[in-house]
Design a protein that fits this description.
The chain contains 22 helices and no strands. With 476 residues, the protein is mainly alpha-helical.
Length: 476
């Protein structure tokens, strides 16, 4: 009965909010819920608001509600659904000119990408956000968006092992946001990762905690501080204290339903109980970790596949636009050349002014030809980029390969449907003329394993024993 009453109350209170609050009020109430860790309310509240804005044809409100919903979903590790709502927000922002909301849209896309391990793609979105913020008014919301950029680029650079960029983001963060507690949590994390100057870790975490209380920070900030304290005492081998702080952070992450942090905390508690020689409790948390990790990993795979597909479509669109530009420039150059020929043929006796005009046209034509060659060269570099993607084991390699060699890929997969994804990738390496050593580096296998794979592929493809696999691939 109480539960039914609560749902009834929540529904009508949310209805009231969404029907009376402007987008600014929507943002304000959403922030209150988020700081309390009440992401279920964030989700429900913005769903109702979205329905209201659709009925009243308010694209700004729709965009904002979609972005807030996407934020809640990514917190729940529902990245594919989150990206769907961000696509809807993007459609609305194409109608209106709002640099602040465009920046927040890019930030939320970047957040999803970072959670999925696509750190470079995340940074591309964060760079777009910075450009939007340059043209946005200096409001509290836009300042928060810039802080978001700093924190996530800092984190992404750490995962990409780019220490110089990490230092740069740390300096910017301290300069522009000296009173933000998460800045000091990140600094403490850096010392923890290096396993040195542990007194500094304590200092920065204490500073973060004081600022969190002063700023009435989000619940997640306190969880992050507690987790780092647990990490600190783990390094000090004071496992009872470490366990205390991990168990302090876990209810916070469970309340806000933040899957990645819950998984990480389950793992840390499992390892701590092992260090304390409490095998039954360790196994209890290992089971929780395994179950949740498998569930989230499955959702992340689907989300990554969706992102890869979208990136591939965007790359194809960009390539088609590039070819169109080349075609237009080539047509202009050809037309100009014909015009020059006609002018020179019929106006040989014209005065010096006409000759000067011809020279200027020739100069323009020359510039157009140079531009055409430059654009053609840009297209050709895609093949070189593909080889680099192969050797770096980039997850977008096959998507890029299909883009650069569409006819080859179609012919290969249609004539030999029994080939596995691994077989296709191996053949793609051969098509790029990679050496056995380079192929081995791509797959992290030995030269002997590469030769064995080639032998098995020849049998699978039913090639003659005297046929060289590389020659067959190049002639396909």
């Amino acid at each position: 009965m109480k539960k039914a009453f609560f749902i009834f109350f929540l529904y009508f209170s949310v209805q009231s909010y969404s029907q009376n609050y402007t987008p600014a009020k929507l943002d304000s109430i959403t922030t209150i819920y988020k700081n309390k860790g009440e992401y279920e309310k964030v989700f429900q509240y913005n769903i109702e608001a979205l329905r209201y804005y659709k009925e009243h044809d308010n694209p700004e409100g729709e965009a904002l509600a979609n972005i807030n919903i996407a934020n809640a979903l990514s917190t729940f590790d529902e990245h594919q659904k989150s990206l769907h709502y961000l696509d809807e927000a993007k459609k609305k922002l194409n109608i209106i000119n709002n640099n602040g909301l465009n920046a927040r849209l890019c930030n939320e896309i970047a957040r999803n990408y970072a959670f999925l391990g696509l750190y470079n793609q995340a940074n591309i979105q964060l760079n777009k956000s910075i450009e939007y913020l340059k043209h946005a008014p200096d409001t509290k919301e836009n300042r928060n968006a810039l802080f978001f950029v700093y924190i996530w680029k800092w984190s992404n650079f750490e995962d990409l092992k780019q220490p110089d960029s990490v230092i740069m983001m740390r300096k910017k963060g301290l300069k522009d946001f000296p009173n933000e507690p998460k800045i000091y949590v990140r600094i403490a994390e850096q010392f923890l990762s290096k396993k040195k100057e542990l007194d500094s870790v304590e200092y920065y975490l204490n500073k973060a905690f004081v600022l969190a209380l002063k700023n009435n920070s989000s619940l997640h900030t306190y969880g992050a501080i507690a987790t780092r304290r647990g990490n600190l005492y783990t390094l000090k081998k004071d496992y009872p204290k470490a366990l205390k702080y991990y168990q302090e952070s876990l209810p916070i992450y469970l309340k806000i339903n933040r899957g990645a942090d819950i998984i990480d905390t389950y793992k840390k508690i499992y390892q701590t109980y092992l260090a304390l020689h409490d095998r039954p409790k360790a196994n209890e948390y290992l089971a929780k970790y395994t179950q949740l990790n498998d569930s989230i990993y499955s959702r992340e795979r689907k989300a990554v596949a969706s992102v890869v597909n979208n990136v591939t479509l965007e790359q194809e669109k960009e390539r088609n636009n590039l070819y169109l530009i080349i075609a237009v420039i080539a047509a202009i150059a050809a037309t100009s050349l014909i015009a020059v020929f006609m002018i020179r043929r019929h106006n040989k006796t014209k005065n010096k002014g006409r000759d000067q005009l011809l020279e200027e046209q020739k100069k323009v034509i020359g510039e157009k030809i140079i531009e055409t060659n430059r654009l053609k060269k840009k297209v050709d570099t895609s093949i070189n980029d593909l080889a680099k993607m192969a050797t770096s084991n980039n997850p977008f390699f096959i998507s890029k390969f299909k883009e650069v060699y569409p006819e080859f890929y179609e012919k290969l997969t249609s004539q030999y449907p029994e080939l596995t994804n691994h077989d296709i990738k191996f053949i793609a390496y051969i098509r790029l003329n990679l050496t056995n050593k380079e192929i081995g580096q791509c797959g992290n296998v030995t030269l002997r394993a590469v030769e064995t794979k080639k032998y098995r592929l020849k049998k699978k493809l039913e090639l003659p024993t005297d046929m060289d696999l590389g020659t067959w691939v190049l002639e396909l």
